[in-house]
TrEMBL record:
This is Cation:proton antiporter. Residues 17-390 form the Cation/H+ exchanger transmembrane domain. The chain crosses the membrane at residues 29-49, 87-110, 116-138, 159-175, 187-211, 223-239, 282-302, 308-329, 371-393. It comes from Microbacterium luteolum (Aureobacterium luteolum). Its main location: membrane. The keyword Disulfide bond does not apply. It holds the Pfam family Na_H_Exchanger.
Length: 411
């Protein structure tokens, strides 16, 4: 485990000092770190699975997820739903539950005799949207700005909504020896209540304190940056020992912090970019660690071998299971069909799926854990190739040839 940690940190340093050069070669940070992880995984071998299946690895992944969810909740620009309440509301309130149900049902057909809790957890692994491996899509003018903006806002909140469902599934699996659904539901509600209390209280108090301090000139931007780095760590450290879900608490803390930090009469809804820079850098660093681990975990997939039903499940989750619920959620809206399809197509998977997959692997028995990590690797790798490479190459080719914009750009 120590070798993997050191190797990931060295890889991050190398990527950081070569980031500009790698970008000119069209090699993103996630791609670079995944490649470094693959090399390390081949050196370490199948023993990487033993390293990941430890309490330390589990808590580290949870803490990283807490930071990522806090950042997601605080950095959405333009208010809570960023001026796209109708579209984002449809995606989060209609399309997201439908994707869980569809992925759950598809898992029952393609993933074998796994329990319903395993299928629910795997559905949460493969569906969260994350633009880390395909950030260029958000700047691709061939897609309408409304489409890009809406999906970006959705990606800021959907993994926070998936998190309690995922946590419930893992909690039930941890108590599966009792086969008592009522006990699991009660424990999940208790954990959610503690997460809600800790997250809202600490987040709101921190945000209000920063608002007062900045307003009266008691602090500087550098001090606020330190606060934002520490809040998700404090929330996780308080919620977890009390029996709450630490990463769900961090997400709620981010929402509460943002609301109280911006409780001002001038109508300001966004946290200043200068205050976000430190916690965003922390999120980037932890995200790079996860991409390194993702590459290393690929060795486990090679060890398992070719499982065509699992691969089919992952590919369908990346495409049909995303597109159909999105189209269903837009029925009755005035959005052109071209833009509806754009919302369904722009659905990359990334860091959230990796962290969920690692947590599932750690919590499940060997056979079910293999399924979770296998479909995670396939869906993220396929998304990296589709959204991070193929679409980027097509965009550059269209720009170089001066061809017409993507058909979804017509509006």
């Amino acid at each position: 485990m120590l070798m993997v940690i050191v190797a990931s940190l060295v890889a991050i340093v190398i990527w950081a000092v070569l980031a500009a050069r790698l970008e000119r070669w069209h090699v993103s940070g996630p791609v670079a770190m995944a490649c470094a992880g693959i090399v390390t995984g081949l050196v370490v071998g199948p023993d990487i699975g033993t390293d990941l299946n430890t309490d330390i690895a589990e808590k580290t992944a949870e803490l990283i997820l807490a930071v990522l969810l806090f950042v997601d909740a605080t950095e959405v620009r333009g208010g809570f739903l960023a001026g796209e309440r109708g579209l984002v509301g449809r995606l989060l309130g209609i399309a997201l539950p439908l994707t869980i149900l569809l992925a759950f049902g598809l898992g029952g057909l393609l993933l074998g005799g796994s329990s319903w809790a395993v299928l629910l957890a795997v559905a949460c692994v493969v569906m969260p949207i994350d633009f880390a491996p395909a950030a260029g899509l958000l700047r691709d003018g061939r897609w309408p700005r409304r489409v890009r903006h809406t999906v970006a806002v959705e990606s800021g909140y959907n993994d926070g909504i998936f998190s309690p469902v995922f946590a419930f599934a893992l909690l039930y699996l941890s108590q599966s020896h009792t086969e008592d659904l009522g006990t699991a539901v009660g424990a999940a509600l208790q954990a959610a209540g503690i997460a809600l209390l800790v997250g809202v209280v600490v987040g709101a108090a921190s945000g209000a304190l920063v608002w007062v301090s900045v307003r009266r000139g008691w602090t500087r931007t550098s001090g606020v940056r330190i606060v934002m780095v520490l809040v998700p760590l404090i929330v996780y450290a308080i919620a977890t020992p009390l029996g709450g879900n630490g990463f769900v608490a961090a997400f709620l803390a981010g929402i509460a912090y943002k609301l109280c930090r911006n409780a001002r009469a001038d109508g300001q809804t966004d946290i200043p970019a200068a205050e976000l820079s430190a916690v965003e850098d922390l999120a980037t660093t932890t995200s790079m660690i996860m991409w390194f681990v993702f590459g290393a975990v690929g060795v486990l997939v090679l060890e398992i071998g070719f499982q065509w039903t699992w691969i089919l499940y992952a590919l369908l989750a990346l495409t049909v299971v995303r597109l159909v619920p999105v189209l269903a959620s837009m029925l009755g809206s005035h959005l052109p069909w071209r833009e509806r399809i754009g919302l369904g197509v722009l659905g990359p998977r990334g860091t959230s799926s990796i962290v969920f997959g690692l947590l599932a692997y750690n919590a499940m028995n060997d056979d079910d854990g293999d399924i979770a990590v296998y479909v995670m690797v396939v869906v993220v790798l396929a998304s990296l190739l589709l959204h991070g490479v193929a679409m980027a190459v097509r965009a550059r080719s269209a720009h170089a040839s001066g061809s017409e914009p993507h058909p979804t750009a017509a509006h």
